[in-house]
Amino acid sequence: MLKEDENVTDLHAVEDAFVPVIKLKYAGIELDILFARLALKVSVFQ
């Protein structure tokens, strides 16, 4: 999905990070996207 966007460049995963991280540039702006698991009893997407 991100690979197909023409505004996205320098897309790569940081495999040795403590938490999953995707680094990319979107329209020239550097972004780090971090992922985390939340232990919730209620669904966030209701």
TrEMBL record:
PANTHER family associated with the record: POLY A POLYMERASE, POLYNUCLEOTIDE ADENYLYLTRANSFERASE
GO molecular function list: poly(A) RNA polymerase activity
A Pfam cross-reference name: PAP_NTPase
Naturally occurring in which organism (per UniProt): Cylicostephanus goldi (Nematode worm)
Domain Poly(A) polymerase nucleotidyltransferase: 1-41
GO cellular component, one term: nucleus
Highest taxon above the source species: Eukaryota
Stated name of the protein: Poly(A) polymerase nucleotidyltransferase domain-containing protein
